[in-house]
């Protein structure tokens, strides 16, 4: 376990130094070029995780993803795994994140080139305005918007009340919400160097339509579905 985790950590650092400058240089090309390069980098990390740490994942509910329109994903947030892996099985996307993350050398600079919705959490009103304005723009461009409504990573046994920003974006834009649950924190824990062998389970829920619904109703439906899905994943994991 220690050897595998060390190999994965080393690969992430080395690959970042290799892929990073390449993606940054692609700023002169269309967005799809650097996005594809970022997906290739993530895929390589997941391959190393599989080989070195015996860590894989499975996805249930892909049939629930809308085929002909953009959508908003409200996702459970337990680890760094989902910030990477969602690129591998969801359509071309952007993520809502802290503005300060884009200042980190290389990794943050890469994020800044991938059309993130970077918000200032120190100013909630400004953050919500940015989320709505840029979120609608990205959705209209054909991108999927990924939001972690808990705001920060939570341990598998913890739950946090969902913020309403994602639901408000759905209400204002008219785009549907896709709830997403997973147990990545069981295998790729927050604040932990070690990665544990096993299979991460991802559950994708049915679309929650936002037309003629208040944001609180949308948020409540998404939170209820994710809570139920997390209970189902937990039961299966313990068996």
Task: Please give a quick description of this structure.
This protein has helices at 2-25, 31-53, 81-89, 107-113, 124-140, 165-173, 215-238; strands at 55-60, 72-75, 93-98, 117-119, 144-147, 177-182, 198-204. By secondary structure, it is α/β, with parallel strands linked by helices.
What is the topological layout?
Elements: H1 2-25, H2 31-53, E1 55-60, E2 72-75, H3 81-89, E3 93-98, H4 107-113, E4 117-119, H5 124-140, E5 144-147, H6 165-173, E6 177-182, E7 198-204, H7 215-238
Explained architecture:
The protein has 239 residues and is an alpha/beta fold. It has one domain: Glycerol-3-phosphate (1)-acyltransferase. Helices cover 47% and strands 15% of the residues. The chain has seven helices and seven strands, in the order H-H-E-E-H-E-H-E-H-E-H-E-E-H. Strands 1-7-6-2-5-3-4 form a seven-stranded mixed β-sheet, sandwiched between helices. Helix 4 (107-113) links the parallel strand 3 and strand 4. Helix 1 runs antiparallel to helix 2 and helix 2 packs across helix 3 (81-89). It starts with a helix and ends with a helix.
Largest sheet: 7 strands, mixed
Q: What's the number of structural domains? A: 1
| Class from secondary-structure proportions | alpha/beta
CATH homologous superfamily assignment: Glycerol-3-phosphate (1)-acyltransferase
Any idea what the shape is? Answer: globular
